[in-house]
Amino acid sequence: MEKAILTCALTGVLTNPKQHPVPVTPKQMAAEARDAFNAGAAIMHVHVRNQEEGMGHMPSWDPDVMESVVNAIRQACPGVIINLTTGVVGKDISGPLGCIRRVKPEIAACNAGSLNYLKIKEDGNWAWPPMVFDNPVAKVQQFLDVMASTGTHPEFECFDVGIVRSVGMYLKAGMLTPAMGRAEYNLVMGVASGMPCDADLLALIPRWMVPGSVWQSTLIGRTEIWPVHQKTADLGGMLRTGLEDTFYLPNGERAKGNGELITALAECARNAGRSVASPAEARVLLGLAH
After folding, report:
1. pLDDT tens digits for range 40-63
2. CB neighbours of 145 closer than 8 A, spacing ≥ 6?
3. SS3 259
4. Please, what sign has the CA dihedral across residues 186, 190, 194, 199?
5. What does the CA dihedral 50, 56, 57, 62 come to, rounded to 10 degrees?
6. Which of 5, 11, 199, 278 allows an S-S link to 282, with CB 3.0 to 4.6 Å?
């Protein structure tokens, strides 16, 4: 099997830094990235937060903020691969497109289909008002067009099996150019209204991917995610974790930071008899242009 590429999702979208150990400032992001990099992460998946005092629980699409965070990470982790988030609800995607144009990441997320984004409480009330994470084909195409202009490789985020199958149609329609690298699927499991974090389901999904593609899993939850990380490694998938996805180590203890989570993820790769890819090796495996 191919070497395992490890991705660290450093901070996520809305987690409150007053309650959880998520980084916010460029200095904090760089420090967390360095710990993850030293533990084996070749790729940093980057969200950025509002930098105003007391607003660190809110996302930012300010290209200046994105550039300062990305530059700090690149300086702290020589040779690291940057993977930029792009997910927004609605038609206005000027924020993520502006960030892609500014920092020209080697990889960016490309949410590949729409999802009713739901969560229900035990008492039957919604955890938040039901919403649609809308990603119609025209929106996907807008992202791909800008990524093509910046030499950015799209990572197709798939929250359900039908979205996995849709990626094959995008490729058949010519929406991904050869210069953008191998087709890459990111199987997002654990969102309450999407695919469950289930090792048996995970084993079935690769049959619906195009031949020659590469895939990884993003697993959201607590300790139940770690057997599925191991299954990903055993099946030849690439691996991702970080404070965006979980706060829990395999033994049930809360992680103090991203470095501990990536250390545990690297152990999954080794348990599967796979070594961890360096950034240079990851670029070759993904067919990155840079």
Report:
1. 999 999 999 999 887 768 899 999
2. none
3. helix
4. positive
5. 10
6. 5
Please say whether the beta carbons of 143 and 124 come within 8 A.
Answer: no
Alpha carbon distance 259, 56 (integer Å): 21
Structure tokens at 268: 């999954």
Residue type, 56: G
At 158-208, the pLDDT tens digits run 999 999 999 999 999 999 988 888 999 999 999 999 999 999 999 999 999
Are the CB atoms for 207 and 161 separated by under 8 Å? no
Asked if 188 contacts 220 with a C-beta cutoff of 8 angstroms, the reply is yes
Widest CA span in the chain: 51
Domain limits, the chain: 6-286
Encoding tokens for residue 88?
Answer: 């927004």
Lookup result for tokens 């729409």? 114
Which amino acid, 275? S
Dihedrals φ, ψ of 115, to 5°?
A: -150, 135
Q: With the C-alpha atoms ordered 10, 222, 5, 198, is the resulting torsion angle positive or negative?
A: negative
Structure tokens at 190: 């654990």
Radius of gyration of the chain measured on its C-alpha atoms:
17
Alpha helices (runs of H) in the chain, residue ranges in sequence order:
26-39, 63-76, 94-103, 137-150, 161-172, 199-204, 226-235, 258-271, 279-286
CATH number for region 6-286: 3.20.20.70
Q: Looking at residue 52, what DSSP letter applies?
A: S
DSSP code for 57: T
Q: Is residue 198 a contact partner of residue 161, using CB atoms and an 8 Å limit?
A: no
